[in-house]
Amino acid sequence: MSSLEHDVERIPREFEYVIHPGKHLLLTYLRGIVYGLGALTAAVVVIPFVVWVLQKLPWVPIVGDFVNGVVERVQQY
Q: Quick one: angle between helices 47-55 and 61-76, nearest 10?
């Protein structure tokens, strides 16, 4: 098979999003939803866990005091 024939056969696969824009938009939309859920998970689970761990570190007094101050201010509101 010549290089030109190979390139011509590849065109429909590479420009499928031009031929079927709805499919491309749907995949982009779903990717955005998954990205948003990942960011939400990090904000709700990972960040409080890191703050909790930093609170428990007695050997880092500057960080521990800072985190305790932040936690106290957040609890006031």
A: 120
In sequence order, what DSSP letters do the residues of 31-56 get, joined into one string?
HHHHHHHHHHHIIIIIHHHHHHHHHT
- At 38, is the pLDDT very low, low, confident or very high (cuts 50, 70, 90)? very high
60 is written with which tokens? 């880092």
Find out whether 16 and 26 touch, Cβ atoms under 8 Å. no
For residues 22-41, give the mean pLDDT. Answer: 92
Q: Please check whether residue 68 is in contact with residue 55, taking contact to mean a CB–CB distance below 8 angstroms.
A: yes
Give the closest residue to 63 by CA, choosing from 53, 54, 71, 74.
Answer: 54
